[in-house]
Specification:
Length: 168
Amino acid sequence: MFMLRNTLSSKGSAFVNHFKNAAKYSTETVSALKTTSTPAPQEQDKLFSHLEVELKGVDPAVLKSYSWFATKAANHLGIEVGECYAPRKAKHDRMTLLKSVHIYKKHRVQYEIRTYFRYMNFHKMTGSTLDTYLEYIERNLPEGVALKATSTELQALPEHLKDIPSVE
């Protein structure tokens, strides 16, 4: 370690001179760029009228807890929270299999998977708020829960529809 320090200190003056010259060049370049640059036009943020979030999982208690978390996060960001609901019945997927591979057709085993759903609706938000909110709730998604988000964007009326031709 001592030898390494000596090696760096013996070549240190060359490095210092090199970086001083580079720093002087970079400040001159930046000052020249500042005077010649033109302001970039600001891009307008998109507007969304509706966001529907569908949660799907096998444990209804986890879905209820996560929907509470998602609505609290939306309230914190100032997003208007709409209806949050869950259908009464779960979707049942049943599979019937034979216990034995070769014989005893009467002996069967039945497996069942219940899938629960929960829906949340949010209204009136900007594109940046929507992106921030979706990224936040996706990062905190619990295990065993699937999320599907559907958004509706507001757009300006096209030019060919604005002018109504007069009928004479």
